[in-house]
Amino acid sequence: MQYLLPYREQGNPPVVRPVVNVRLEYGDTGDWTLQALVDTGSPRTVFDRGAADALGVQIGYTGAETVTIRIMGVTRSAQVETVELSLPDIPGATWTAQVAFIKDPEFRMSFQGLLGTEGFLDRFAVTFNCYHNYFIIESADEFHDRIGQHLIADPVSSPDPQWERPTSS
């Protein structure tokens, strides 16, 4: 099923962006609902330190997986944790993923998270229509069945001409 969502104004000055409500659950320590930007340029799903604190994530514990990410033009340290995510506005949109929490408590964005490739876009298909200020989220499989099935039918015995490389004459 497809879910049409409006772009929302974020930041100062306000800019319309594809932002969704996301609910995070971390073990037995807590849950938190926040706003996150759907970001096709982000290689992973990332949340700020405030989200980590609200969930009860202990930042910097011995053995914690730490990664370096580049966000808003600055390299930052982040801690990777496995959380349960859901989109409260989309029934059944619940999944488990490894996400990164920015360690710096002073780091601020106009939203508390980025839904990137690893942890979000690897599970859902998102179609953007900025001209009309909306975007659509649907399961990757439903999108593929509707749009992309013909692209991988049998590329060896019946290649799709639009995917063939030009040959030199």
Write a structural description.
There is one protein chain. The chain is mostly beta strands and 169 residues long. The protein has one domain: Cathepsin D, subunit A, domain 1, CATH 2.40.70. Helices cover 9% and strands 43% of the residues. It has two helices and twelve strands, in the order E-E-E-E-E-E-H-E-E-E-E-E-E-H. Strands 4-5-10-6-9-8 form a six-stranded mixed β-barrel. It has a three-stranded antiparallel β-sheet with strand order 1-12-11. A hairpin with a 4-residue loop joins strand 2 (8-10) and strand 3. It is globular and about 60 Å long.
Largest sheet: 6 strands, mixed, barrel
The CATH H-level homologous superfamily: Acid Proteases
Helix percentage: under 10%
SSE string, helices as H and strands as E: EEEEEEHEEEEEEH
Please state the structural category. Answer: mainly beta
- CATH architecture identity: Beta Barrel
Total count of helical runs of at least 4 residues = 2
Shape: globular
| Strand line-up across the major sheet | 4-5-10-6-9-8
Mean pLDDT, rounded to whole units?
89
Q: What is the CA-based Rg, rounded?
A: 19 Å
